[in-house]
Structures are given as structure tokens and as C-alpha cells.
């Protein structure tokens, strides 16, 4: 499995951002090949983190492209800063 983690800082409205992610982005992720799980986390203080888990590296990398497009089209006014993106192979899980 592979994961993609995106950290967004300076989030303008965490509640509205979460609503748009839940209603618009989560369905896109569920349709992606190799999808395992997706989490959108409110870390407080204007920080939100997404974690996408896929069966393979290609799925994780595809999720990064989908996220960038979704943010540009639907969340640009709420997420003013580009995310810090980390990807990697899942080496332990529970």
C-alpha cells in the first residue's frame, strides 16, 4: 500500500472546507483505482491534513493530481497556501 499526505496551512474556514471535501472530493477518491481509505483531519489553528491510502503507488500519485485539481476548482478561496505533500510506501498498519 501507498499513502499520500497533504498538509494545508492557513485554512480560511475549516467547517466549509470540510463540507466541500466531504461532499465533493471524497466521492472522487472512492472511485479511484486501488482506493483503500481517505481521511480529512482538522488539526486546529488553520491546519488541515488529508491522508489517502491506495493499493499501489500509481493510485497515491493519481490522488495528488486529483486533489490539486479539486482544490483549484473548489477550494482555492479557502486554502490559500499550497500543501506540503508527502508520499510513501506503507510499511506498517493496524
Polypeptide structure, described:
The protein has 94 residues and is of the alpha+beta class. The mean pLDDT is 94. It is built from 2 helices and 4 strands, in the order βαββαβ. The protein has helices at 14-31, 57-75, and strands at residues 2-9, 35-44, 47-54, 84-89.
Shape descriptor: globular
Q: End-to-end span in angstroms? A: 13 Å
**Unreliable runs, pLDDT <50, ≥5 residues?**
none
* Oligomeric organization of the protein chains: single chain
Q: Mind describing the biggest β-sheet?
A: 4 strands, antiparallel
Query: What's the gyration radius in Å?
Result: 13 Å
Order of helices and strands: EHEEHE
Topology:
Elements: E1 2-9, H1 14-31, E2 35-44, E3 47-54, H2 57-75, E4 84-89
Antiparallel strand pairs: 1-3, 1-4, 2-3
Helix pairs in contact: 1-2
Protein name: ABM domain-containing protein
In short:
By secondary structure, the chain is of the alpha+beta class. The protein has 2 helices and 4 strands, in the order E-H-E-E-H-E. Helix 1 (14-31) crosses helix 2.
